[in-house]
Amino acid sequence: MSGVNSSRTLGVLLASSASLVLVLSGCSSDNDTPSAATSSSAASSSAGSSSTAAAESCPTAAPESGAAAEWDLDGDTGSIAVTGSTDDAAPLVTVEAPFSVAETQVQTLQTGDGPVVAADATVSVCYMGVNGRDGSTFDSSYERGAPVEFPLDGVVAGFQKAIAGQTVGSTIGVAVTSADGYPNGQPRAGIQQGDSLIFAIKVLGVS
Predict the structure, then answer these.
(1) What is the pLDDT of residues 72-106, one digit of tens each?
(2) What's the rounded Cα separation, in Å, for the pair 59 and 85?
(3) How many beta carbons lie within 10 A of that of residue 87, not counting itself?
(4) φ/ψ (deg, to 5) at 187
(5) pLDDT score at 65
(6) Which of 115, 124, 145, 181 is 20 to 30 A away from residue 152, measured at CA?
């Protein structure tokens, strides 16, 4: 894997080192116009009868060396091996580049015991985003140690497909096509037109 650039952002783009996250709509992935901004951590603890309490941090420690992958996937080109996060360690995504898929593929790594996430829910998650073209990590809330919160109907299609229908507490791997990510690229995140993306996600809470 290549080096990490934590100033670059996902389908969810970090606006500043403070805590604002810009969420790009899946239908506007051909431009850089943000459609929403939310707090990356504090909002996840908001109370309410329809909300589920979320953890206030994402583990920053490296995964245990030699840990077996929970998901191996051969792409149309290349391959990936994904190990989800634990309570103590960040996930690991290993890429044999260039990796690409013709269809978005979702794999539940560990099933949580919380409520099911609706397609229009607001979720709090920890995530890592990796570019299949070169194996570089372009964004990671695990590096920042703080989860992000956003409405699922305000993110790129592949991220929504990964989370909708999952249960809170689940860890998920998803390989996202360019069409379900950024068909025209996202320069601020180093994503080029045609790049397939890989995300390792943990759903912390939902409201």
Answers:
(1) 999 999 999 999 999 999 999 999 999 999 999 99
(2) 8
(3) 7
(4) -55, -35
(5) 79
(6) 145
CA 151 to chain centre: 13
Per-residue tokens: 139: 């964004």
Q: Using an 8 Å Cβ cutoff, are 157 and 190 in contact?
A: no
Task: Indicate the residue type of 86.
Answer: T
Task: For residue 40, give both structure tokens.
Answer: 């990356």
| Structure tokens belonging to residue 189 | 């995140």
Question: From start to end of 54-147, where are the E strands?
Answer: 71-74, 77-83, 92-100, 105-110, 122-131, 137-140
Q: What is the pLDDT of residue 55?
A: 59
Contact 201, 171 (CB under 8 A): yes
Cis peptide before 98 (omega within 30 of 0): yes
- Please name the amino acid found at residue 26: G
Quote the CA–CA distance of 46 and 79 in Å, as a whole number.
Answer: 39
Q: Label residue 61 exposed, middle or buried (CB < 10 Å: 0-12, 13-18, 19+).
A: exposed
